[in-house]
Amino acid sequence: MSDDFSDRVRKALADRVGHLCSNPECRALTSGPQEDPAKALNVGVAAHITAASAGGPRYDPDLLPEERSASSNGIWLCQNCAKLIDNDVIRFTVEVLKKWKADAEAGAKSRVGKTAAATDNHAPSLQKYARAKIAPIIPRNHEQSDFMLTEDAGEYFVFQKLDSQRYVDIPKSFIENIHKFGDSKPALIQLIGRLQWVSMKRNFELFPDKPAGPYGIAKDVDSGYPAKLGIGDRIAFARESRLPELLSQGWYVFYDLDGTFLRWCGSDVNQILVCNWV
Predict the structure, then answer these.
(1) Which domain covers residue 62, as residue numbers?
(2) Are residues 32 and 98 located together in one domain of the fold?
(3) Domain count of the fold of the chain
(4) Mean pLDDT, the chain, integer
(5) Residue 36: what pLDDT?
(6) Model confidence over 25-84: pLDDT tens digits?
């Protein structure tokens, strides 16, 4: 049996830190508007400091059920940090989480009713030469790639992709959040849009839209479109169901200059343009 938090406790935990993640290296805003003007979204979690049931992270058998489900045993985190603390219980102890909670509540208390300072304390920041992963990024296999911050140019960061000599400039205004997981692990940079491979330029570029699927955003074209672009060499349409097989053989999804992949809607099955050059 799990001693879960009530809705009242969840709301209190979120309200007491101003709906910001309590991890001092994160501080992500966890609530905001949906497109529907009558609804709001939430990416925050009321996480247990000591587990709600036996066998869980940091479980304390001496607590009573009502103590496990009380607000004193909860901490408000974003979904990423909630998963992080439960996957590394040696590092994220009860003492660490209680300090996070106390500091986050004290910070929220000090800001209540006060005008924000002229400087933005939540502007994206990262140490030079820090490693990072970037999301969303298309193709999705690059989610596991490491980038290194080579320059903080004021309004934008310059990153190098560590398995190549490719560089990408990311404006700070394009960064939704930076999750920092300590010195030994790369930070996670979450973008407002997406970082997208462009085949003809053989480079990564930024686009404002989120990807609609694992291959990004599709553009429907006719079978003669590749010839119009002048890219007939080592390129072909392939059945969408064959993509995993072809990608494992060294082929790549072709991405147009606008960041879309090209889909030819045949009479019986969709076909995707692939190439074997990068």
Answers:
(1) 7-111
(2) yes
(3) 3
(4) 89
(5) 83
(6) 888 899 988 888 888 889 999 999 999 999 999 999 999 999 999 999 999 999 999 999
| Helix (H/G/I), strand (E/B), else coil: 174 | helix
Give yes or no: residues 202 and 223 share one domain: no
**Model pTM score:** 0.55
- Domain check: are 34 and 81 in the same one? yes
Give the pairing type, strands 217-220 and 260-265.
Answer: parallel
- φ, ψ dihedrals at 62, nearest 5°: -80, -10
Q: How confident is the model at residue 1 (pLDDT cuts 50, 70, 90)?
A: low
Report if residue 174 sits inside a domain: yes
Residue 27 lies in a domain: yes
- Distances from the Cα of 57 to the Cαs of 24, 47, 73, 79, in angstroms? 20, 11, 13, 16
**First-to-final CA distance of the chain:** 53
Q: Are 82 and 89 in contact (CB under 8 A)?
A: no
What tokens were used for 172?
């700070």
What is the Cα–Cα distance from 198 to 195, expressed in whole angstroms?
10
Of 180, 207, 234, the residue at which a domain comes to its end is 207
Sign of the alpha-carbon dihedral angle for 203, 208, 212, 218: negative
236-258 pLDDT tens trace:
999 988 999 999 999 999 999 99
At residue 240, what is the residue type?
Answer: E
Report the length, in residues, of the chain: 278
Residue found by looking up tokens 């903080």 in the block:
152
**In terms of pLDDT, which residue wins out, 199 or 277?**
199
Q: Are residues 20 and 101 in the same domain?
A: yes
The pLDDT tens digits for 172-205 are: 888 988 988 876 789 999 998 899 999 988 999 9
DSSP state, 59?
A: -
Question: Residue 235 forms beta bridges with which residues?
Answer: 275
